[in-house]
Structure formats: structure tokens, C-alpha cells
Specification:
Blueprint lengths: L2 E8 L3 H11 L10 E8 L2 E8 L2 H25 L1
Antiparallel strand pairs: 1-3, 2-3
Helix pairs in contact: 1-2
Amino acid sequence: MKLTVEIVFECAGEREASSLRATLSPDNKSAPKDQKVVVEQTGRTLRFFIESARPVSGIASAVSLLADAKLFQEVWALAS
């Protein structure tokens, strides 16, 4: 079984989307071999696709991504 999760963020503008992308894009060089994360940005829309052969691992990555996005939102609001 393979799990695919798509998370879409509609940001206020392209600058915010670019900052969010830079913040949330995977930075761990030793990602699980059976997991793939693809990030696409179109203007102010940001899409994350998480594919995993292990559903629990894919869901954990999605939950972590959402938690980090919430923190980004709080910091972005304070900085604006």
C-alpha cells in the first residue's frame, strides 16, 4: 500500500508563499528511502505531496508539516 497526502496552502501573497516554501521544504538529507516529498509553488499557492510506503510515517510527516506551518503563520503575523 502507498499513501499520498496533498496539502495545499493559499498564502496572502507570493512573497509569503516563497518564505513558507523555504521554511517547510525538507532539509533532512537522510529522509526515509520509502518516502518522497514534492513541493510545488504557483504564485501564492503552495502544494506539498507526501508519498510513503508506510502510511503511519506519511501521516506523521503530514502532521509535522502542518504544525510547522502553524508556527510559521504565527511568526509571520508577528513580523508583519
